TrEMBL record:
Protein name: Uridine 5'-monophosphate synthase
Coiled-coil positions: none
Keywords for the protein's UniProt record, in alphabetical order: Decarboxylase, Glycosyltransferase, Lyase, Multifunctional enzyme, Pyrimidine biosynthesis, Transferase
UniProt entry tagged with the keyword Transcription regulation: no
Source species of the chain: Polypedilum vanderplanki
Organism placement in taxonomy: Eukaryota, Metazoa, Ecdysozoa, Arthropoda, Hexapoda
Active site location: D91, K93, D96
Annotated Orotidine 5'-phosphate decarboxylase domain residues: 32-248
Pathway: Pyrimidine metabolism; UMP biosynthesis via de novo pathway; UMP from orotate: step 1/2; Pyrimidine metabolism; UMP biosynthesis via de novo pathway; UMP from orotate: step 2/2
E.C. designation(s): 2.4.2.10, 4.1.1.23
Length: 262
């Protein structure tokens, strides 16, 4: 099954170009760690990208929390992504009609489609959303979409039925969908070409006081099918982000190596 396959063998069967690239980066850097760079100054993001870049496969942004956004910032981030060989994911979580998301994706201050490699979206509005994003991606086939099927937060409303229907919806968009954001394997078929990205990861499983729930790297990769785990505050709020990022990387990668041996 998908859980026993290596990332490099999955790179060969990936249908989306960004997913293919990501699998290769993961294998080359031996990293399935995604950093949630949830800080509000562009310099802080760039500093994280420079110091942690060597240990991550993806740097995830929420560009709408950046207080001093500029085109320079984006260009610098892109340069660091190239230097350290990681991909940039904008966690935009699109959730509107196709026409609106196409505009949100390509226009406005952020012009997300001009700099991201990966972007997240909700299936809630139906597949017109995917059609809208696809129109923007048309000439940039290296962008991959991650669809949310299940969240890490307490009391989220994504039922198993919602998740199953999301999986059915994306089946028709395998050229633009790179994977899913989920807490457990939501694949109705094996689908090793798709990547499972799982947020809510911390060395000490607890939560925050706003509904976030955490699990350990081992549990998420070995028991829950995560290919990539997202870590934000577990790293960026630690005393020594570089050392802690190395620990997450090692524990996530070892879990993957154990998983493929079963
Ligand atoms: P932290 O590790 O600091 O809790 O950050 C988790 C990150 O993952 C945040 O950027 C959040 O927006 C994102 N995320 C999440 O926590 N749960 C989900 O279900 C989906 C997410 O994108």
């Amino acid at each position: 099954t998908r859980l026993q396959m290596t990332f490099s063998s999955r790179a060969e069967i990936a249908k989306n170009e960004a997913a293919k690239e990501l699998f290769k980066i993961m294998e080359a850097k031996k990293s399935n760690l995604c950093l949630a760079a949830d800080v509000t100054k562009s310099d802080e993001i760039l500093n994280l990208a420079e110091s942690l870049g060597p240990f991550i496969c993806v740097l995830k942004t929420h560009v709408d929390i950046v207080e001093d956004f500029s085109e320079n910032f984006v260009n610098s981030l892109k340069a660091l992504a190239k230097k350290h060989n990681f991909m940039i994911m904008e966690d935009r979580k699109f959730a509107d009609i196709g026409n609106t998301v196409a505009l949100q994706f390509s226009k406005g201050i952020y012009k997300i489609s001009e700099w991201c490699d990966l972007v997240t979206a909700h299936s809630l509005p139906g597949d017109g959303l995917l059609k809208g994003l696809k129109e923007v991606i048309k000439n940039k086939e290296k962008i991959g979409i991650f669809m949310l099927t299940e969240m890490s937060s307490d009391g989220h409303l994504m039922s198993q039925d919602y998740s199953n229907k999301t999986m059915q919806m994306i089946a028709n968009y395998s050229d633009i969908v790179a994977g899913i954001v989920a807490q457990s394997s939501q694949f109705t078929e094996n689908q090793p070409e798709l990547i499972q990205l799982t947020p809510g990861c911390k060395l000490d499983e607890t939560g925050d006081n706003l509904g976030q729930k955490y699990n350990t790297p081992e549990f998420l990769v070995k028991e829950k099918g995560a290919d990539i785990a997202v870590v934000g505050r577990g790293i960026i709020e630690s005393k020594n982000p570089v050392e802690v990022a190395k620990t997450y990387r090692e524990r996530l990668w070892n879990s993957y190596e154990e998983r493929i041996k079963y």
